[in-house]
Every structure is written in C-alpha cells, then in structure tokens.
Automatic annotation (TrEMBL):
Domain 1-deoxy-D-xylulose 5-phosphate reductoisomerase C-terminal, chain residue ranges per copy: 150-233
Record key words, sorted: Isomerase, Isoprene biosynthesis, Magnesium, Manganese, Metal-binding, NADP, Oxidoreductase
Residue stretches making up the 1-deoxy-D-xylulose 5-phosphate reductoisomerase N-terminal domain: 12-138
Cofactor section: Mg(2+); Mn(2+)
Protein name as it appears in the record: 1-deoxy-D-xylulose 5-phosphate reductoisomerase
GO biological process, one term: isopentenyl diphosphate biosynthetic process, methylerythritol 4-phosphate pathway involved in terpenoid biosynthetic process
Gene: dxr
This enzyme's EC code(s): 1.1.1.267
GO terms of molecular function: 1-deoxy-D-xylulose-5-phosphate reductoisomerase activity; isomerase activity; manganese ion binding; NADPH binding
Gene3D superfamilies on file: 1.10.1740.10, NAD(P)-binding Rossmann-like Domain (3.40.50.720)
Coiled coil: none
Binding site for 1-deoxy-D-xylulose 5-phosphate: 131, 155-156, 180, 203, 216, 221-222, 225
Pfam families: DXP_redisom_C, DXP_reductoisom, DXPR_C
Length: 391
C-alpha cells in the first residue's frame, strides 16, 4: 500500500498581502495557525511591510510586482530561506508553487485577472477578493471553474453563496445585494459636486483601501459587485437588486420563487468571509467579535439613487450590453478614481470620465485575454486624455 503524505495544515498564498484584505487574511492565519500555513506572499510597493510579514510568518517565497520597488534596499533583510520573485510573472510564479493549496487574490484592480486565471488553470482553490477579475474576464474565467474551486471573499457574494447552499439555484427569484450607501447616502447630485477626497474616504462601516472606499462612495463598487454576482451565480442583472442597508448587518439576501427569503447576517468584519474561503466546507471559531442582536435598535432599508450616483447606472448599462464594455467601465474608473485621489478631477467627474469612455468604445464579444488587455489599455489612455482636457 502506498501512503500519501498530506499536509496537516492548508498552505496559503496571499497575493496583495499589505492591503486591507491581505492584512486581515494574515490575522485570520495567525488566529488559526494550527490549520493554516502561510507559504507565499506578494506586495506591489510596500516592501517594508512585506519583509516584516515574511519574518513573522516564516514564508518561503515572496514577490514584488512593482518594477520601481523590486530593488528596494529593505528586501536584503528578507529571511535567508525566503526566495524573492520579481519580473512580469512573479505573482503567477507563486500560484504555480507545488506547496500552495489555496490562493487569496487580494490584488486591487484589473491586475488581478491574470493571477486569477493562473489559479484556476492550476486547479488550486481561488479565494477571490478581486471582483475586477470577473467584471473584466468573467466570460473567460467562469467556464474554467470546477465545483468548490472558487470561493468569493466579498462579504456580499460570500453571503449569497451561503444562502444558496443546499438550495436549487434555479428556484432563486432574485438576489438582494446589500449596500451601506456610503458616506453620502441621501445627497443629491448637486450636493456631491464639492465632495473632497477626505470626505470620500470616510466610509461609515467598512475599513478598506482608498480605491475601494472611493468606489463605495460613488456606488461604483456596488455596480461592479452586481456584474460579479451575475457571473458567479448565473443570474440576469435585472434580478440582482441593490438594497441600501445602512447598518451593514445584513450582508445580502436571496429571495426564492415561493417568497421565502434567506438572509446572511453578522458583524461588519471582512475576516469572516476571508476565513470562510479558507475553511470551506468547515466553519471555524469566529475571528471577529460576535453581534448581540438584542442591542441593535433597528435595521433600515432603502433604494439607491441612480441619478445622483451615476456610476451604479453606468455599471448596469455595461452589464446589459456585456462584451468588452465592462472592461472599459472598470479601466476608466480605475484611472478616474486615481485622478480624484490626486485632486486631478472632481468626485462627480469620475462618472463623467467613465461615461465618456463607454460612449467612445466599439463594444465587441470577449474572445481572449489578449483582447481584454488591449481594450483595458485603450480605455486607460482614453480616460487620461479626458482628464487632461476637461479638468
């Protein structure tokens, strides 16, 4: 009889380890060190943090994805047994390591697409915290997914995934995708004209990176999540309804044909969906404080204002037209948000830039990753031109 030596702990690679999701994932790994072993980490530019985590978790492989930071002096302080990966494919190289079981893709933006593709191609579990992978390349990625291979880490999509467990997805009537409404809920379009970067970064409930926090303020984040849900759960965009839930205690709901509604409730803490992506199909002890529902005064609900928060409407248009238009939506938004964060455009200008790029695009059917790369590059250049000419 041949005895196969299986690892006692799940071996994890965390790509984007210095961001909000990455650091919370490391906290989960620390709390469950008897079950999880961190073997590989990547960072874009925060090399000092990367070196610190490499020592703390005794990882064997790290990658630096930024050309400008691959020669940082601090990298000489990596543990002697830790191998440094650089180059255009360094993140994919971590995915391909034999001693990796699960890959958390917490890279921000469209850059996560190639890595998500590499994880699915490898047959390893993908803990997906990069919604842009599916927004841009869902048509190409979803046919590759094996049952149980991809676990969504967005709190809303993790909630929907759990609400559908044991259910027939064909009996789902609609998805109620919840949203805090961001810091500007209730404001008119005119009242949003003078919003500052500082105002936009003050999210009421979630602790996230700057780009995602601005997306939450414009509601683009929810627009991207609708497209992500459309791919993940095979549901038409009109059956994925955005619901404002200011307390952020209901993370999403699924309504079935018989009128029954399954809701996922819990703390507003991203460590819970991160941990679930690592532990599935098991449930481990909570990494976050529990909610005492006797102390919640109320749960409130509302509808989003698509006229004031036009990014949500633009995402719906991109979803309905499909093809390469969501790629343009995402790329233009990334450039516009970066411009806003550097005071190069206004808050309401973000939607103007995205809409102008979408209007100029000749939409095509998605056929390859190379095509998406070309469309992404076109949209970014188009957005930069609009910013330089209008703001």
């Amino acid at each position: 009889m041949v005895v196969v030596d299986t690892p006692s702990r799940t071996r994890v690679a965390i790509l984007g380890c210095t961001g909000s999701i990455g650091t919370q994932a490391l906290d989960v790994c620390k709390q469950h060190s008897d079950k999880l072993e961190v073997v590989a980490l990547s960072a874009h530019s925060r090399t000092e943090n990367l070196v610190h985590f490499a020592h703390e978790f005794a990882v064997r492989h790290v990658a630096v994805t930024s050309e400008a930071h691959r020669g940082d002096a601090v990298l000489s302080e990596l543990p002697s047994a830790c191998e440094l990966h650089t180059g255009s494919r360094c993140a994919e190289e971590l995915v391909e390591l034999e001693d990796v079981d699960v890959v958390l893709v917490a890279i921000v933006g469209a850059a996560g697409l190639s890595v998500s593709h590499a994880v699915l191609k490898s047959g390893k579990r993908l803990a997906l915290a990069n919604k842009e992978s599916l927004v841009v390349g869902g048509d190409l990625l979803m046919p590759m997914v094996q049952p149980g291979q991809m676990l969504p880490v967005d709190s809303e999509h993790c909630a929907i995934f759990q609400c559908l467990l044991g259910e027939n997805p064909r009996e789902a009537h609609c998805i109620w995708l919840t949203c805090s409404g961001g810091p500007f809920y209730g404001r008119s379009l005119d009242e949003l004209a003078d919003v500052t970067r500082h105002d936009a970064l003050a999210h009421p409930t979630w602790n996230m990176g700057a780009k995602i926090t601005v997306d939450s303020a414009t509601l683009m984040n929810k627009g991207l999540e609708r497209i992500e849900a459309m791919h993940l759960f095979g549901m038409d965009i009109d059956r994925i309804k955005v619901l404002i839930q200011r307390e952020s205690k209901i993370h999403s709901m699924v309504e079935f044909e018989d009128g029954s509604v399954m809701a996922h409730l819990g703390a507003s803490d991203m460590r819970i969906p991160i941990q679930y992506a690592f532990s599935y199909p098991e449930r481990w002890s909570t990494p976050a404080p529990r909610v005492d529902f006797r102390e919640i005064a109320q749960l409130t609900f509302g509808a989003p204002d698509m006229e004031s928060f036009r990014c949500l409407k633009l995402a719906e248009i991109a979803a309905k037209q499909g093809g390469t238009l969501p790629c343009v939506l995402n790329a233009a938004n990334e450039i516009a948000v970066d411009a806003f964060l550097h005071d190069a455009c206004t808050f309401t200008g973000i939607a103007d830039i995205v809409e102008a790029c979408m209007d100029e695009h000749d939409c095509q059917k998605v056929v390859s990753f190379e095509q998406l790369s070309d469309v992404d590059a076109w949209a970014r250049e188009q957005a930069r031109g609009i910013i330089s000419s209008r703001f």
